[in-house]
Write a structure and sequence with these properties.
10 helices; 4-stranded antiparallel β-sheet; disordered N terminus
């Protein structure tokens, strides 16, 4: 018959139990349960020295009394130190067999010493795990940003990933306003962020000096901190506000608020989040530089296409038009009827070629324009206006320019024409059956009083406003 395995001494069991897990909360639970077992106490608890330290406040013994200690002479407490710092107090109370003895206190101190070592190891493990998660998160953000996301999508990616990593109630991006404040431009929340986006920290707010200076701000309670002035602060508690800054450029601020009553951020979390923000800012700058390079490549390709169109297509069309005009002049020497027919056909062919040349030249000019959101020339602004209408119509209106519009049209006149063009395009787009719109800007027009002027003509083939037939032509004029 096999002899039973000898039972380990209670102190050894408790010490071994303390070091069996690297999870901090599990380790602390082993400590409290071991204290109760060693001393025969009905009640055991570990109170943290600082509320919220390591994300924990209090650990109680499992399966035992949940009330407080009884008489003062039946309770015992010893400090737990981690790296010469008091982590908390381990207390036991209500011993089943009477008052606590000196031996109980010695056992509790031995357990507290071993607990300090185990807690230090758990802290290192938790820190390593947190660092790994934040590093993986930063790498994922960098990968996502470099795959071609838009600016708005890029900011949302940063806000969303940071919120999840920090276990925050919201991930918020703020950017500087022209007035000197900061505005929330992106928000990732578990709830509807509609009332958060657009919130402005007004100039003069105490927290702005640090934020605009690129300094991190750590807040224990957003609702009561006097530096916080926005209307949404009342719903949040602990918060981190971290600069998105790289290469000397401040892109904005990443704010990670938790709900009221949630645990404060630990120093490790603050440090890791700050490093994440720096990495995210660098990724944002790299993504922006990549996007600019891609746009430049597109513009260079468009410029090449424009040159090819000009060098090949326009010159060939022009040469063909010259040949037709020459043929048209020679055709007048034949029979009267035959010559008239040929002359008319050639005339229409010449007109079509000239119209095609105008269309191609307009296309060339559009290809050579700077980004659509910032046209700098009069032609570019006209083309942008018609392009806006094309999105609603489903087709691109044709645009013709006659004369030196860039040299003759002044800024005030250009503004009036663009306003008139917008109104007329809007009216044309609302007419039934519209399938074609033609816009002509003529800088060689003569006004009824004989002065040189600028004429805008907009034609559409939709049903007329009076319901009688199709096709509407509207004209706007202005002296130059």
């Amino acid at each position: 018959m096999t002899a039973p395995t000898p039972r380990l001494p209670p102190l050894l069991e408790a010490v071994l139990g303390v070091g069996t897990d690297l999870e901090l909360r599990v380790t602390l639970q082993h400590i409290v349960d071991g204290a109760a077992e060693l001393t025969g106490a009905r009640y055991a608890v570990l109170d943290m020295a600082g509320p919220g330290h390591d994300g924990l406040v209090e650990i109680r013994a499992a399966g035992r009394s949940t009330g407080g200690p009884g008489r003062s002479d039946t309770s015992l407490g010893v400090p737990i130190r981690v790296d010469d710092e008091v982590f908390g107090t381990l207390r036991v109370a209500d011993k089943e067999s009477g008052p606590f003895t000196a031996e109980d206190e010695q056992l509790l101190r031995l357990l507290a010493t071993q607990a300090g070592i185990a807690i230090g190891n758990s802290r290192l493990y938790e820190t390593a795990r947190q660092r790994e998660r934040w590093i993986e998160g930063a790498a994922a953000v960098t990968t996502a940003l470099l795959t071609g996301e838009s600016a708005a999508e890029a900011l949302m990616t940063v806000a969303e990933r940071a919120r999840v990593l920090a276990d925050a109630a919201a991930g918020v991006i703020l950017q500087a306003t022209p007035e000197g404040g900061m505005e929330i431009v992106t928000a990732s929340t578990l709830d509807d962020p509609g009332d958060i986006v657009g919130t402005v920290i007004e100039p003069g707010s105490p927290v702005l000096v640090q934020l605009l200076g690129g300094e991190p701000v750590f807040i224990d309670d957003s609702a009561t901190d006097p530096r916080m002035t926005t209307h949404v602060r009342s719903r949040f508690g602990p918060s981190m506000m971290l600069p998105l800054q790289a290469d000397g450029r401040l892109i904005g601020t990443l704010a990670l608020p938790r709900r009221r009553g949630d645990r404060p951020y630990t120093p490790v979390e603050q440090r890791l989040a700050t490093q994440f923000a720096s990495q995210a800012a660098l990724a944002l700058l790299l993504a922006d530089a990549q996007h600019r390079r891609e746009r430049l490549a597109v513009y260079e390709d468009r410029d090449r296409i424009a040159r090819d169109l000009h060098d090949l297509v326009v010159q060939r069309l022009f040469a063909t038009g010259m040949m037709l005009e020459s043929t048209q002049r020679r055709s007048t020497g034949g029979a009267a009827d035959e010559g008239a027919d040929v002359h008319a056909i050639l005339g229409r062919a010449v007109d079509e070629l000239q119209s095609t040349i105008q269309e191609v030249r307009t296309a060339i000019f559009a290809l050579q324009q700077p980004p659509a959101d910032a046209p700098t020339t009069f032609r570019g602004k006209v083309l942008r206006e018609t392009a806006g209408t094309a999105a609603a119509l489903g087709f691109q209106p044709s645009v013709h320019f006659t004369g030196p519009v860039e040299n003759r049209v002044t800024e005030p006149v250009a503004g009036h024409l663009l306003t008139a063009l917008h109104r007329k395009l809007t009216a044309a787009a609302h007419r039934a059956g519209v399938s074609r719109i033609e816009v002509t800007v003529d800088a060689t027009a003569t006004l009824p009083d004989g002065r040189s002027g600028l004429r805008l003509t907009v034609y559409d083939d939709g049903t007329r406003d009076d319901g009688e037939g199709t096709g509407t032509t509207v004209t706007w004029r202005s002296p130059l």
